[in-house]
Recover the amino acids of this structure.
C-alpha cells in the first residue's frame, strides 16, 4: 500500500515565506504612516470640540493644531501650513487637512500615500470626508 505525502516542500515553503515577508515589510513601512494620520484625525476631532472654534481665524487654528499634533506625536513638518485650510461659508466653518507622504520602499520604489480629511467646526460637528 502506497502512502501519500502531505505538506509543503522546502522550495514551496521558501516561496510562501518570501510572499509573507514582502507583505510584512510593507506593513512595517505603512503602519507608522497610518498611525500618524490617526493622530491628525484625533487632533482635528479634539479641535472640533473647542468652544468658539468656528469663529477663530486660520492662524489661531494652525497654532492650536500644532499643540495638539505635539501631544499626538505628529511631526508637524509632514503637513505644510498651506495644506491646513479653513473654509467659512454662510456661517459654517470647516477645516480641511490634506497631505501626501512618500515612503522609501525598495531600492528606487517609493510608496505614496495621500490623506485628505475635513471636519465641520460649527454646528453639528459631523465629520466630512
Amino acid at each position: 500500500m502506497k502512502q501519500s505525502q502531505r505538506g509543503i516542500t522546502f522550495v514551496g515553503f521558501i516561496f510562501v515565506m518570501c510572499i509573507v515577508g514582502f507583505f510584512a515589510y510593507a506593513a512595517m513601512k505603512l503602519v507608522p504612516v497610518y498611525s500618524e494620520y490617526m493622530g491628525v484625525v484625533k487632533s482635528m476631532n479634539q479641535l472640533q470640540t473647542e468652544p468658539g472654534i468656528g469663529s477663530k481665524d486660520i492662524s489661531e487654528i494652525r497654532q492650536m493644531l500644532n499643540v495638539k499634533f505635539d501631544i499626538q506625536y505628529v511631526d508637524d513638518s509632514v503637513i505644510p501650513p498651506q495644506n491646513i485650510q479653513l473654509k467659512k461659508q454662510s456661517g459654517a466653518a470647516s477645516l480641511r487637512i490634506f497631505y501626501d507622504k512618500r515612503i522609501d520602499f525598495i531600492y528606487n520604489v517609493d510608496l505614496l500615500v495621500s490623506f485628505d480629511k475635513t471636519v465641520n467646526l460649527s454646528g453639528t460637528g459631523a465629520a466630512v470626508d
